[in-house]
Structure formats: C-alpha cells, structure tokens
Specification:
mainly alpha, two-stranded antiparallel ribbon, 2 strands, about 325 residues, 2 domains, elongated, about 0% strand
Length: about 325
C-alpha cells in the first residue's frame, strides 16, 4: 500500500497513465474512431476519394487532421486514420519486442549470475561485446542474411535463363521475419542481463536461496521461483521505459528507408517533401508532420513516465 501511495503521490504518474491509457484506448477503439472503408481492408493508410490533388489538403470535414499527397494520380492519404491505426501497431510492436528482449536478457543475466565463476565472467564479456554493436549495422546484416537465399535464387535464374521457381518454405518463412524486430531483440537485451545479473549475484548467498538448495531444489526452479522474483523489479522499470524507445527506433528506421513496418514512420516518409513548404516555411503544411511527430513524442513520454512511476512503486528505498 505504501508503494501505491508513492505512485499516486506524484502528478507526473497520472500524466503517464493518462497518455498510455489514451494510446491503448485509441488502439482498441480504432474501428470506431476511424472506421475502415471496407470490411476486408487491413491497410493503415486510407485514401480520401473526395480529395484529389498534388499538394496536401489542410484539416477539414473530409479529413480532420488533413491529408498527405502521395504523388500518385493525385491521391491523398488521411493523416487521422494513420495516427489512430498506427497506435495499434505501435503498441503491439513495442510490447512484443520489449517483452521478448526483456525475457532474453533476464534469463541470460539470472542464469549466468546464479552459476557465477568463470562462466558468469564469460557471459558478461559477451554481453559487453553485444553492447558495442550498432543497431543500424545489425539491421543491414540481418536483412541481407534473411534474403540471401531469395537473392541467390534470383541471380541463378537470371544468369542461367531458368524459368520462375516458386519460393520454398524456407524462403516464405524468412520473408515473414522482420529484420528490425529481430535486430532490436538481439541487440537490446544486454541492459536487462546486466541489471538482473547484478541483483542475482547479490542475493544468491541469501538464506532463502541456500535453504532451497539444501532442500534439493534444482537450479531452474531456484532461478524461476526464488532468484527472479527478488531481482526482476529493475528490469520491469526498464522495460516500461523501453517500449516507447522501441517504437521510436522502428519509426526512425522506416523513415530513413532501412526497413520496419511503422505506419507513423511510413507516413512521415511519404510526406517528407512537404515538411518545408514554399518560401522555406515549415508551417505551410504543418499537418503533414506535426500530428505524427506529436504521437511519437507523447507515446515515448507516456511510457517513460510510467516507468518512473513503477520505480517509485517497486523500489522500497524510495522515501
């Protein structure tokens, strides 16, 4: 109860809960807030049929947050529609990638810390090596590896004059793997491993751990039932803060054309040539980038504030 009291004693925690709750509501209520034009439509981009032109249209009755011109046959994309439906994919991506990343890091840190000795030193050195590897390079390398078989088949077909060959099951499986998601999981687990490893090293000689060992409990049971529940709190706080960061990284990589399926980043990339309007003014077509940018910023701020609030709740040393 004291933890909850600390949580609700800070006004910024209410703001964090409100922002996160707003995005959760938008993702769940997307069919009501921005109805799909067709039942079978799944695209987060909706073309406004009543608006045609080569420049974006400002907010109005047909599009309450304006449109972005695609440059293809004068079609216009509804900004509000993408903001709403993009919140669903952003929430799904952030939660999924962060949970998988945290699970990997927590298991590595807990197992190596409990075993200790030279094994723990080796795992921590490997962890340090992963920290030094840049995310962007990981995206490029993994994307190349995931599609190397497909490109090799295409090269053989073009050079040898063979007819089209249907992709194998392996090709289809590799095509469904998102290089950005996989990269973020493989190269973002290290802080979790470091945090949990430090906590486990501190408590592995505690009385309740020694008692469990004396009763014959196995290493896996001790880690899952005793070590992790008493050392996972910092990882929970870090995970809450990382959700917004994962979504921002995905949107950035999508915007610069390095992969990813961020609808928010994709719409920003679609309207990049309208960010600076005639005369060099960024306010001429402000609706092209302000709503999406604001959604990204508020999404990240909300989860960061929630992470700070969880720290107040889970950290018994807080006053």
């Amino acid at each position: 109860m004291r933890g909850w009291g600390r949580f609700f004693s800070r006004k910024q925690n209410y703001l964090g809960l409100g922002l996160v709750g707003a995005f959760i509501f938008a993702s769940l209520a997307a069919p009501l807030l921005a109805p799909l034009p067709e039942v079978e439509m799944t695209s987060p981009y909706r073309s406004v049929d009543k608006l045609k032109g080569m420049v974006p249209f400002p907010p109005g009755p047909q599009a309450i947050l304006g449109t972005v011109a695609t440059g293809v046959r004068g079609s216009q994309v509804d900004v509000f529609f993408t903001v709403v439906w993009g919140s669903r994919s952003a929430l799904s991506f952030g939660l999924t990638v962060t949970l998988l990343t945290a699970a990997l890091g927590v298991l590595v840190g807990a197992a190596s810390g409990f075993i200790g000795g030279w094994f723990n030193d080796l795992v921590m050195r490997i962890t340090d090596a992963f920290i030094a590897f840049p995310i962007i390079a990981g995206v490029v390398v993994l994307d190349s590896l995931l599609h190397v078989n497909e490109r090799l088949n295409l090269f053989i077909m073009l050079e040898g004059g063979y007819d089209y060959v249907a992709p194998s099951r392996l090709d289809l499986l590799l095509q469904r793997i998102d290089a950005v998601s996989l990269t973020l999981i493989l190269f973002s687990w290290m802080p979790y491993a470091r945090l949990v490893n430090t906590m486990v090293l501190r408590i592995r000689q505690a009385d309740f751990i020694l008692a469990a060992q004396a009763m014959g409990a196995g290493m896996g049971r001790i880690i899952l039932r005793h070590a992790l529940p008493n050392s996972i709190s910092p990882a929970v706080v870090l995970a809450a803060r990382d959700i917004g960061g994962m979504v921002l990284t995905q949107a950035t990589l999508t915007f610069v054309g390095m992969g990813g399926d961020s609808e928010w980043g994709g719409l920003l990339a679609l309207g990049r040539r309208w960010i600076i309007g005639p005369g060099g003014s960024p306010l001429t077509y402000w609706w092209v980038f302000v709503p999406i940018t604001l959604a990204l910023v508020l999404f990240g701020i909300g989860w960061n504030m929630l992470g700070d609030g969880l720290n107040d709740w889970l950290n018994p040393r807080q006053a």
